[in-house]
Design goal:
- The complex is a heterodimer of chains A (267) and B (369).
- In chain A, 75% of the residues lie in helices and 0% in strands.
- Chain A has helices spanning 2-32, 44-49, 52-85, 89-97, 104-115, 120-127, 139-164, 167-175, 180-208, 212-216, 225-234, 239-260.
- In chain A, helix 3 packs across helix 9.
- Chain B has nine helices and 20 strands.
- Chain B has helices at residues 46-54, 96-106, 111-124, 140-152, 170-187, 198-204, 222-227, 232-237, 351-368, and strands spanning 7-14, 23-30, 35-39, 61-66, 69-70, 81-84, 158-162, 190-195, 207-212, 215-220, 242-250, 253-256, 259-262, 272-278, 284-286, 293-302, 307-312, 318-323, 332-336, 343-346.
- In chain B, the strands form four sheets. Chain B has a six-stranded mixed β-sheet, with helices on both faces.
- Chain B is globular, with a radius of gyration of 24 Å.
- Chain B starts with 6 loop residues before the first strand and ends with a helix.
- The chains are: A mainly alpha (267), B alpha+beta (369).
- Chain B: It is an enzyme of class 7 (translocase).
- Chain B: Part of the ABC transporter complex PotABCD involved in spermidine/putrescine import. Responsible for energy coupling to the transport system.
- Chain B: Residues 7-238 form the ABC transporter domain.
- Chain B: This is Spermidine/putrescine import ATP-binding protein PotA.
Chain lengths: 267, 369
Amino acid sequence: MENKLTRSLYAVPYLLWIILFVVAPILLVLYYSFFNIEGQLSLSNYEKFFTPVYLKMIFSSFWYAFLITAISLAVAYPAAYLLTKTTHKQLWLLLIITPSWINLLLKAYAFLGIFGTYGAANNFLEMVGIGSKQILFTDFSFVFVSVYIFIPFMILPIFNSLNDLNPTLLDAANDLGASRWTTFRRVIFPLTIDGVKSGCQVVFIPALSLFMLTRLIAGNRVITLGTAIEQHFLVTEDWGMGSMISVFLMITMVLIMMLTGSRKRGA
Amino acid sequence: MENVPIIQFKHVTKLYDNDPPVLKDVSFEIERGKFYTLLGPSGCGKTTILRLIAGFTEASEGEILFNGNKINHVPANKRQVNTVFQDYALFPHLNVFENVAFGLRIKKMKAPAIESKVKEALNFVNLQGYENREIREMSGGQRQRVAIARAIVNEPEVILLDEPLSALDLKLRTEMQYELRELQRRLGITFIFVTHDQEEALAMSDEIFVLNKGKIQQSGTPIDIYDEPINQFVADFIGESNIVKGKMIEDYLVEFVGRQFECVDQGLDKNEPVEIVIRPEDLEITSTEHGKLKVKVDSLLFRGVHYEISCYDQDGNEWLVHSTKKAAVGTEIGLHFDPEAIHVMRLGETEEEFDRRLEAYADVDNDGE
């Protein structure tokens, strides 16, 4: 009996934390989303959300999040595959992960320097004879920097699932007549799909609500739902609308998690 | 065509980087439709031979022929062989049917043909009705059968089996030994089986290749290898043996542990130093007066079918005896054996020399009759 008591005592800090910092904020956000800008209880935020202005914003958020995820995946999968083939794979992995330890803001400012009018990128373009270009404050630079930031998070789960793959399975496929491509399509990819799914989750969901990069790198040319939330809370002080968008994002994320949820298939 | 060996190794050497060679100048022939076993301790190169035949790795030197054609650089997916792997290597994301159908689907076979072939293969290994099971729902023995079905469904000319029974418990292993042997007879195709278990090799094979340190030590039928081991390694590795140093006095007379014994070996040089092998089951316990050897019982181990009795003679040689009779520890007993039980091994004899000597010896025997 004592055991049971002490065990419930251990749970107290955890429960307090969850209630104060997870449950309460979510309820608050939900609560605020039902108040319009004059502070009256109404559903106007939800009505406003389905107007063309916001629908366009939703579309652009999803489009950029999709682009960032797709490009990250296209770069990360082959990179993770090559990593598993190297002799010091843990060291190489560490090197790829290291940039994610640097502060995001710092990295963003570094790119401001690189992509700026007199930055390294333009110097290079001039040297090869293409000439100076406007790189900063375009959707290209936004996607590029986002992909750069998210790639470690995409590589890690894919690397882990590739690393867990039993190499004899590849011999077996080969033995049964499969070419390298068929082996990839029929054995390697299906067996690492869980890693791909969790990689996409950790990239797509935050990419949906990016806001700092949209201003710093894209110069507000790309407006996402994240930007909208920031603007509503800090500039227009329409907390209700900001909360409403947050609620929408949360629901979307839950849906994405459910859709890409990994069904475990053991050996 | 029928007379061409299905697989031939000609002076094959395999090196990995700068390590000592895994295989050293190995040559052999594999005939069609027989059950072969590559037997040896771990690291002897037996799995390397299998991987060379399967095409997972390439020979550093020498030629590998399949049906008389050189296949050194033919990739694994183009070879007429299929492998049953040690850990089965079944695809965990596919069910039993799809695992077995894997090779057929790659050959772009039509769906009804695949269906009937997979069914037939599963029947062959007694797994009818398991088509829709997931691999994780199958027991070790069942997975083993799926792996075999997946190999035979492709109708290869040779099936390679890499220690496929090592993960099974003893009873199931014995059962699968019978089944594999039976399967090979029914299919009539060549099986090349790799194992480190000498009993398994003796029970299943038409031919055994005993390997050690990247070389074939001896090849022959199970009975040949057991009765006439070429050297100490083979004698020790195949079954248990008592090995002592001796001297060939003349034909049919050999000296060891300070006494001369009648034997059936001949054709060796006079006073040639030799090694003597006597199998533990060929030693009989008798009284000290009747025994050819006088030994003291050191320990006694009950093994189920027999007692394993360890004795020492006055020179300190250990004599292992397998007997259904018990002997008290510490007592002196006599050991009796027939002249046929003595097997004489020449030191450092190669397999060719050994075979030539055995043949000459057989001829003399026939003339005598």
